[in-house]
DNA sequence: CTTACATGCAGGTTT
DNA sequence: AACCTGCATGTAAGG
């Protein structure tokens, strides 16, 4: 170890961190709590818990599945607006939007506003390629991002390139065009999320709202829309009771909330979108007037419950396998049909077309290999942050909004089965054809809101995030936003510092908030991409990673390790905060006796601590699979007028994991702890023995670095092509 | 032409 | 002699 060096680096990092709000804050505060993180993390948890239903059992037991409200709106007839698919990222948004169309949504205004913000963010991100910019950007963005996250329809998390951002907007517009209205919110009737907001009493806002004059949705007969749906809903679940006239919608809702606050989040509510016409029509059918509305509301709420439960189940069932980490819920993983994936095998999806909506999209192409390869996908419990890898990439992405890995990620998400959309939704709201219509885009953000604005959020967190999101009233919302902003900014500053310390030698990983957050799409984040969904078929490769650790970790490492272990014991999953930094397809020279791995320059410069000296810094890399910590050195060689970045002392790691040429490594940073995590992924090709990388060999060096998958799939699943990640040359 | 990066290889160090 | 370390070079790809 080079302690001294580390310090120096730390300092350095500190400096950088200043620029990087991203990661930071939670780490600090949370770290203090150490094992209490659980609680800390959810700091607002107390209240959040109300919303967050982690315990699926509750649902199952308490609520028999209710028939879905399949499309309350006409949407059913008009399945997703096709608009969606223009671009990968956009597609996500659009898809969600479109889906939204199909579903009843309790849409909050906030969402719309957020969308706006997203759009802005998208631009913002889009323009920031440089690290410096990035940092500065990050500084500011967190708040915004968070805000954006709130929006239910498009994922804010993903900073989108302009185009994409615009797309997102379009989506929203589309929704609007379709005449969607916020069942409740539009009228300021109430904002579910507000109710849940931690800062305020659970029902505070609600009550406030209650007192406010409310506009009720106008009832107009809608010929097309959802009569059927509603009817069906009604049939299936009769309106339970008829409230007296005196019982207004607010009360109905309030009662419902009281009884379901623990199991249903604001987010869930927000996802419900109904076409105005549909609502009107349905209300009529249910008796018309206020009573009709009330009945309709009940039905919707019921649907929400059911929907929520179903989703939970799906999630649970799919995620059960991977227990270790929260990320298990990652849609990608869930998606992965192949059980083996849980273990470490990454099937590379040949292509996912499961989601019809996306099939048309150009992006539907099979996920990029690297995505597929993404350890996250592969690794149990490991969920990659979707967006990150590429995001920041800004560098990577910038030039190629679509070509970036992130795009792929998005795509992959899009193609994923609905059940897994939760995660996906984080990035984009994919329209969930089946279950949710409009999901909050980034629940994650929202959920963590203040604390983890950028962190990747586990699927389950959606709700939490959502909570922060909208407030019942615009004013409340504003206040909340202001609060969040303050909070975030405050944290940011602290975070930087904290992180520095936390990272053992490693500097603060530059976390790019903007990027990471999930924004897979080229935008920012890269996507964490990598998670591949699995699917694929192409199959290419299944990866297996087993990290066996022999050596005793260093002390600090031990600390982390211990902490992680403790956390795990407690059910806490540190990985939930993992952010994808970079991945590298291993070349012969990387796995040879040299014990060093050349890292992709751009990613290294973007995501790893800035190196002042060629000697670089000592950096502890915890093996995600084994939690073992490898003390490596991150350095660079002057090369021509540039630099070559290397990760040294990788020999044992490579050997331990049995990594060979063509396999790849993925480096993540733990947002909370600030430590670096590494995953070695072995790629096995189903069909061809070749590791591929070689094949591609020299011909495609670039792509390899960034797109392991590509390399891996020698066979070449279609996905690989896309990825050509543009290694944006500086 | 420039950039990134895989790898060759010289020179130093260790066994 | 084997191993390390670090630089230099060659090549593919991007602009």
Automatic annotation (TrEMBL):
Assigned keywords, A-Z: DNA-binding, Nucleus, Transcription, Transcription regulation
Gene source species: Salix suchowensis
Region (Disordered): 1-24, 491-535, 684-730
Record-given protein name: TF-B3 domain-containing protein
Residues in TF-B3 domain copies: 582-684
Presence of the UniProt keyword Metal-binding in the record: no
Basic and acidic residues composition bias: residue spans: 1-15
UniProt KW Lipid metabolism keyword: no
Composition bias type Low complexity, residue spans: 709-719
Localization, UniProt: Nucleus
Compositional bias per record (Polar residues), positions renumbered to this chain: 720-730
Top-level taxon of the source organism: Eukaryota
């Amino acid at each position: 170890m080079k302690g001294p060096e580390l310090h120096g680096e730390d300092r350095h990092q500190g400096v950088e961190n200043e620029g990087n709000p991203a990661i930071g804050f939670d780490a600090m505060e949370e770290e203090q709590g150490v094992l209490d993180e659980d609680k800390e993390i959810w700091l607002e948890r107390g209240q959040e818990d109300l919303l967050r239903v982690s315990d699926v059992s509750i649902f199952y037991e308490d609520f028999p599945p209710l028939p879905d409200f399949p499309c309350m709106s006409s949407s059913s007839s008009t399945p997703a607006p096709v608009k969606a698919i223009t671009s990968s990222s956009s597609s996500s948004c659009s898809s969600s939007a479109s889906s939204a169309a199909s579903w009843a949504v309790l849409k909050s205004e906030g969402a719309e506003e957020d969308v706006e913000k997203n759009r802005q963010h998208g631009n913002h991100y889009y323009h920031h390629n440089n690290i410096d910019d990035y940092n500065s950007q990050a500084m500011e963005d967190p708040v915004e991002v968070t805000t954006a996250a709130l929006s239910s329809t498009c994922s804010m998390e993903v900073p989108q390139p302009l185009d994409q951002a615009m797309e997102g907007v379009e989506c929203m517009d589309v929704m609007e065009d379709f005449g969607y209205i916020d069942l409740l919110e539009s009228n300021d009737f109430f904002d579910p999320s507000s109710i849940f907001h931690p800062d305020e009493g659970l029902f505070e806002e609600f009550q406030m709202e209650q007192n406010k004059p409310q506009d009720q949705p106008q009832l107009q007969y809608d010929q097309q829309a959802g009569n059927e749906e509603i009817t069906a809903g009604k049939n299936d679940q009769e309106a339970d009771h008829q409230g007296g006239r005196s019982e207004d919608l607010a009360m109905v809702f309030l009662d419902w909330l009281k009884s379901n606050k623990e199991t249903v989040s604001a987010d869930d509510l927000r996802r419900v979108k109904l076409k105005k016409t549909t609502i009107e029509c349905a209300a009529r059918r249910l008796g018309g007037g206020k009573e009709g509305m009330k009945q309709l509301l009940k039905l919707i709420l019921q649907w929400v419950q059911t929907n929520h439960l179903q989703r939970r189940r799906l999630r649970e069932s799919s995620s059960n396998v991977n227990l270790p980490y929260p990320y298990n819920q990652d849609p990608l993983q869930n998606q992965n049909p192949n059980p083996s994936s849980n273990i470490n095998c990454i099937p590379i999806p040949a292509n996912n077309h499961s989601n019809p909506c996306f099939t048309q999209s150009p992006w539907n192409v099979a996920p990029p290999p690297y995505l597929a390869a993404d350890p996250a996908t592969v690794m149990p419990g490991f969920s990659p942050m979707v967006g990150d890898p590429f995001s920041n990439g800004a560098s990577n992405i910038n030039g190629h909004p679509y070509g970036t890995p992130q795009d792929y990620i998005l795509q992959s998400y899009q193609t994923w089965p609905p059940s897994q959309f939760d995660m996906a939704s984080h990035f984009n709201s994919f329209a969930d054809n089946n279950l949710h219509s409009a999901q909050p885009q980034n629940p994650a953000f929202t959920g963590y809101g203040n604390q983890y604005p950028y962190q990747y959020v586990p699927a389950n967190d959606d709700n939490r995030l959502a909570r922060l999101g909208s407030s019942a009233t615009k004013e409340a919302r504003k206040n909340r936003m202001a609060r969040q902003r303050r909070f975030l900014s405050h944290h940011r500053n602290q975070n930087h510092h904290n992180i520095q310390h936390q990272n053992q030698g490693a500097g603060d990983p530059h976390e790019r908030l903007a990027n990471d957050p999930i924004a897979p799409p080229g935008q920012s984040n890269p996507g964490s991409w990598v998670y591949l969904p699995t699917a694929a078929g192409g199959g290419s490769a299944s990866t297996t990673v087993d990290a066996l650790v022999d050596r005793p970790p260093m002390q600090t490492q031990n600390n982390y390790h211990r902490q992680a272990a403790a956390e795990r014991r407690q059910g806490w999953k540190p990985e939930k905060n993992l952010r994808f930094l970079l991945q590298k397809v291993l070349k012969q020279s990387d796995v040879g006796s040299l014990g060093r791995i050349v890292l992709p320059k751009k990613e290294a410069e973007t995501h790893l601590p800035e190196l002042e000296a060629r000697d670089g810094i000592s950096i502890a890399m915890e093996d995600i699979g084994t939690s073992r910590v490898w003390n490596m050195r991150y350095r660079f060689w002057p090369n021509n007028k540039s630099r070559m970045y290397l990760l040294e002392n990788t020999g044992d790691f490579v050997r331990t994991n049995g990594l060979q040429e063509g396999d790849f490594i993925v480096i993540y940073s733990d947002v909370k702890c600030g430590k670096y995590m590494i995953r070695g992924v072995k790629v096995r090709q189903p069909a061809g023995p070749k590791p591929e990388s070689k094949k591609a060999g020299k011909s495609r060096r670039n792509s390899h670095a960034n797109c392991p998958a590509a390399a891996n799939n020698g066979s070449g699943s279609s996905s690989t092509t896309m990825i050509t990640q543009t290694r944006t040359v500086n």
